[in-house]
Design brief:
The chain starts with 15 loop residues before the first helix and ends in a 5-residue tail after the last helix. With about 60 residues, the chain is an all-alpha fold. It is built from three helices and no strands. The chain has a domain of about 25 residues. Keywords: Membrane, Transmembrane, Transmembrane helix.
């Protein structure tokens, strides 16, 4: 007995404003990320000391 799989209703053609809005959103996020990247601190400096210890222990189990 085979169970029919539910089909997702994905529209194949989007309206012009939807495509335009999505393109503007993606471009804005990309531009913001690219422009603010040099000024943001690296991820590791934002971690708490406990998180750094846990990260180091996860990377090198024989160390701790």
């Amino acid at each position: 007995m085979s169970v029919p799989l539910p089909t997702l209703a994905i529209p194949t053609s989007f309206s012009q404003p939807t495509v335009l809005a999505a393109a503007i959103l993606v471009a804005t996020v990309l531009a913001t990320t690219i422009l603010t990247a040099p000024f943001s601190r690296p991820l590791f400096s934002r971690l708490t000391p406990f998180s750094q210890l846990a990260l180091t222990a996860a990377q090198d189990p024989g160390l701790y």
